[in-house]
Amino acid sequence: MGKNQVIEIKENAPNYTKLVRPKFRLGGAKRDAASPVKWGERTRCARVARIPMLEIRPGEPRDLAEIAAIQTASPAAAAWPAADYLQYDLRVAVRDNRVAGFLAARTVAEGESEILNLAVAPEFRRRGFGRALMESFLKDVRGAVFLEVRSSNSDAREFYKSLGFQELTLRQNYYADPPEAAIVMKFHSC
Ligand SMILES: CC(C)(COP(=O)(O)OP(=O)(O)OC[C@H]1O[C@@H](n2cnc3c(N)ncnc32)[C@H](O)[C@@H]1OP(=O)(O)O)[C@@H](O)C(=O)NCCC(=O)NCCS
Description:
Layout: E1 5-8, E2 17-24, E3 42-50, E4 53-58, H1 64-72, E5 89-95, E6 98-109, E7 112-120, H2 129-138, E8 143-150, H3 154-162, E9 166-175, E10 180-189
Parallel strand pairs: 7-8
Antiparallel strand pairs: 1-4, 2-3, 4-5, 5-6, 6-7, 8-10, 9-10
């Protein structure tokens, strides 16, 4: 991926906060049409939005412990030795200096890539972080993007569908521990 991307996360996210900063008029303002308040009078409360910022950047060795912890907390996701991701396209979503999620992908052939894993820490889910990671990847690739997801992982299946992935086929006995079929999903990136 190119330069780090900083993304404004949707305003209705659970951790979105607004600071209410009281504003006071300073100076000797007269009460007239242009300045209809007395000096020192509390005039209004300005709502100042503190937009939570999310940074998407390439994953690095310093991120591996946090990536491993997210995997441990995400049993529905694949479980790789975290260091293995460094040889692929690894992206992390960083919020307040914490790795909140990661995506690992690889190019399989020209015009074809594969998502190896994607997970967001449970406490950061449903805030648009997974979408931000995936959109960061999809805008950098062209052609078909494939992934496998456990058939029981309805949350992830809904997530991928919301991004435009389509369910292609069922691969029986694809996963072990616990054994389960995989749904193969595909996205076409123009
Ligand atoms: C799948 C996963 C990565 C989604 O990440 P996320 O940051 O929570 O997802 P987002 O907040 O970006 O969701 C984007 C959209 O996807 C859909 N979506 C996400 N989670 C969903 C859920 N649990 N149920 C239904 N739809 C869901 C919604 O349309 C959502 O938009 P909305 O919040 O405006 O309704 C996350 O749930 C996760 O880490 N799961 C465990 C690991 C895993 O299963 N990985 C997939 C391996 S194949």
